[in-house]
Amino acid sequence: MVKEIYTDKAPAAIGPYSQAIEAGDFLFVSGQIGINPQDGEIASGIEAQTKQVMQNLNHILTEAGVSFSQVSKFTIYLASMNDFAKVNEIYGSYLQKPYPARATVEVSRLPKDVLVEIDAVVYKKA
Length: 126
Known about the structure:
six-stranded mixed sheet; 6 strands; 2 helices
């Protein structure tokens, strides 16, 4: 059974996709970017964008009844690997051990020309 997860505390999808999909024991959270859901503005700079991304992810996870501690894997997409240390520090401040698996990649471009996007996979039985 597949169930859509939606909250108005995170930005609405900007295309034909859901904020998250619950499929059995798994939750797949679409990539989040640093958009403030209240005004639609993109946060300025890598630190502010990363914080907004993590807040958006948190709201979606909360709506699904889970938390960061249950995330199995994150993927971080960066416009520049030069921002890795800053993103890593902010991202890490939202997590506790045992940390989830993660991949971090530099990409040539992200939606709305943001600097960072993060998606997540949750195993809800954990």
